[in-house]
Design brief:
homodimer, alpha/beta, Aspartate Aminotransferase, domain 2, 8-stranded mixed beta sheet, 15 strands
Chain lengths: 477, 477
């Protein structure tokens, strides 16, 4: 645990009993209830990790329990990884390594071995724990100067804009900081761009089929007419259909996910990228390219395609899938002129993340374990670890599916498998049956522009632990 | 300085020279340039407050300067409050008390005595420094458990919803946590409510004249037809006009600021509140009440009116004016059913603040200097201090205006004076002349629903320091 976070003494310790709340009313043996109460108080943040526990004797007295009950409760916590005892210096609560050293959000398996509800509708990860805590500490150290200023929305913290521009430039897409607008996520970026560019609400918008439900929901809320273009992991983008749609229907806007497409995992080849960019230029079509999944390349080593770019292409990105959804930092990369226009949009201030979160993002991007400023940044190091974990989980999930009739193309990246269940199985029915048994999954129609097709598909994220994936597949079969 | 923020050793010290950047290229004496570079590095966050400086000898060697130059630079910093030297334990950089112990954002007067540009268009404050830093520290201590979860948007952190509900209940408006939806600010709250409730974009919306330009911009962006109802600090709301408008034009939505109305400072009396609520109920008019300024009551002691409430009234609030804009935490108080509907709106996730910022808000609301949970919360203590400072600044600004022809009603609360310049002076012309001399102010038409009336009014926020206010009024005259 790094300096600055421990709380060996202080109010947390004095209020230990208070932090536990009304745990006695729970059923079962007292020792088990007490250990559960400690775990819950930590998860709720009432009891900070690093809090030193009072002595066994004090605990027994304060909580009005026998010493034996206290010893049993502490043993349960210690065995489970929630308590660390250093000889001679007492016991300190902490989060178990199995929660902090992984990419799976704890709420996905907080039931442990019990038959708790499993939610596999979200393809999201927990934060990279140690790196995030360290970045948080550094951001807090540097926050004093922010607090004496107004805190009003800006196009982004200068350092963060520089770091993001540098990442694009390193990846071969020359970018100046003035071309970056920091937003509170990729969906916020899309909302702002639509408000600015999609001013005639009857104008149609090209989307992929399937596509990301969050983006479809934003577009539907605007009552935009959606023009779907098929994409599959096996055959990629139907560029002929795209070209026909653009020529025939004259859309001015398209929303595409060329990198580890959500949900199929399809990855657009460099020639197709060039074709799309040329088509956009020829037909004055503005293409919003969602790069949220771009860094989740699970190949060893990663082999990124060039960015889909061009005069009519706007990139949007987010730290939500790569780092953590709770950071709420995303961005738009566009021409500096458009960025200046977007800053004047009344929605921009509301979709601008808090300065502190931008500082945390900058610290996560900046920090390099090596000395000096070489190639790459802190994000590259975090990604190496996360890719390894996700690859293991992807392969575990694939292994579980080998003797089913369900088919899929193993994706080179992203966070989920896109299953074809076969013509006899309807995904919404399967999802409904699974829900009855406590498992929530996302059926194909959720990803369809028309909400009805893709009836035989199911998305299964591999962001869960192998244990949870095993139970989920057992339930589904 | 509280535990957890000092950085007596570590990379910050080792990289001291690096943190300063390329300061030598600046004009003027070296010692002055060096001291300016240290100040700028702190303001930029490159040099965290609390960093221990290397010894004078080391500094001279590392920076390749004479010892005399270093001594002079450090003396300048010390005299200006940027350096604190403890006998025998070296020197530590810090933010001067004149920046941390006030409500004015530093960017408003970073030019110090120089003729820098003055921006009086924003009525915003700096964070309550010590209380905010302490809350930040506690939030970080409690953040470990958040980081192991998904971080996706929720209706709000349970503890924050409880604290906000408790504040309403204490103020006489019984509220359950399920009635609170946490948003990234009051404007975010308004945007979400409009998207949900103002679905027929041609439907007219009642606003005050003048009104808050941020809200007007959001409404205009939707191309909503605005129905202005006059309000003045001296006579309050024109309820007759309001009733006629509601009866005659049949609007379904109104946006009002009954508490220390922005910009006039008008405060709606209890009988008028009841009248508005009754009118809303009678005519199925949903009233969105913006309570952003409510806590900025500058009377001693504060005498809050009852919340404007009723079956058709939705309250929105924000920490931006009371605590800090950079926190980006606001909320909606509505029926639990509407809150549930809003959570399903695709915009909600984008307008939900990061979990860490919600944790900071909860810590700011929670902490009470006294032991135990009595009446009131941490916010009440912060407010007492901020009200005192703002009152002094308001009275200073009022004093500066005594021998001008400009008139105003001294507001009981809020952050600005609403001046009437007289029929011979046009505010936009005055603002243009002021801009030429480096002072930015907001002329009346900015606050008008039709963007043209209120031509003889000017808003002057008293969020600046007395020095800056004095210079601003001198420039304006």
């Amino acid at each position: 645990m790094q300096r600055g976070f421990s709380s060996d003494t202080g109010p947390a310790q004095r209020g230990f009993a208070a932090a536990l709340g009304t745990w006695r009313t729970k059923e079962g043996p007292l020792a088990r209830s007490l250990s559960a109460a400690v775990r819950e108080a930590m998860i709720d943040g009432r009891l900070p990790a690093g809090t030193r526990l009072p002595s066994e004797r004090e605990l027994a007295r304060t909580l009005d329990l026998s010493r034996g009950t206290v010893v049993t409760a502490l043993t349960l916590l210690r065995d489970d990884g929630w308590l660390h005892t250093r000889h001679g210096s007492g016991s300190v609560v902490r989060l178990p390594a199995r929660l902090t050293e992984r990419t799976t959000p704890w709420s996905l398996d907080r039931g442990g071995a019990r038959d708790a509800d499993l939610d596999l509708t979200l393809a999201v990860t927990a934060a990279p724990h140690e790196a995030y805590r360290a970045a948080l500490g550094r951001a807090v150290e540097r926050s004093a100067a922010l607090l004496v200023d107004s805190g009003v929305a800006t196009p982004g913290l200068p350092r963060l804009r520089e770091l993001l521009a540098a990442r694009y430039t390193r990846a071969g897409l020359a970018t100046r900081p003035e071309q970056i607008l920091v937003t509170s996520g990729a969906q916020a970026a899309l909302t702002l761009l639509l408000d600015q560019l999609h001013t005639d609400r009857r104008a149609p918008v090209v989307v992929e089929s399937p596509s990301y439900p969050g983006a479809l929901a934003i577009l539907r809320r605007r009552r935009a007419r959606l023009l779907p273009v098929p994409v599959t992991a096996a055959y990629g983008w139907d560029t002929e259909c795209l070209a026909e749609t653009v020529r025939g229907k004259g859309p001015q806007l398209a929303y595409l996910i060329p990198d580890f497409h959500n949900p199929t995992g399809a990855h657009m080849t460099a020639p197709v990228r060039a074709e799309v960019a040329a088509l956009a230029e020829r037909h004055s079509l503005t293409v919003v390219v969602d790069e949220t999944m771009r860094e989740l390349d699970l190949r060893t080593p990663p082999r990124p395609e060039p960015h889909l770019s061009g005069a009519r292409v706007i990139q949007i990105g987010s730290a939500s899938k790569v780092l953590w959804s709770g950071l709420r930092v995303g961005w738009i990369r566009a021409g500096a002129d458009l960025v200046r226009e977007l800053v004047r949009n009344p929605l921009q201030a509301q979709l601008s993340p808090p300065p502190l979160e931008q500082l945390i993002a900058a610290e996560l991007l900046r920090e390099s374990r090596g000395e000096g400023d070489g190639e790459g940044d802190g994000l590259d190091e975090i990604l190496t670890d996360r890719r390894t974990r996700l690859r293991t989980q992807r392969d575990h999930l694939a292994g579980l599916l080998t003797d089913t009739a369900w088919t899929y193309t193993l994706p080179d990246g992203g966070l989920s498998l896109w299953l074809h269940l076969g013509e006899d199985t309807t995904a919404t029915e399967l999802a409904a049956r699974a829900a009855e048994r406590g498992l929530a999954v996302s059926p194909g129609p959720l990803f369809a522009a028309d909400r009805t097709t893709l009836a035989h598909h199911l998305r299964l994220p591999f962001t869960a632990t192998p244990d949870v994936l095993t139970r989920a597949v057992e339930l589904l079969r």
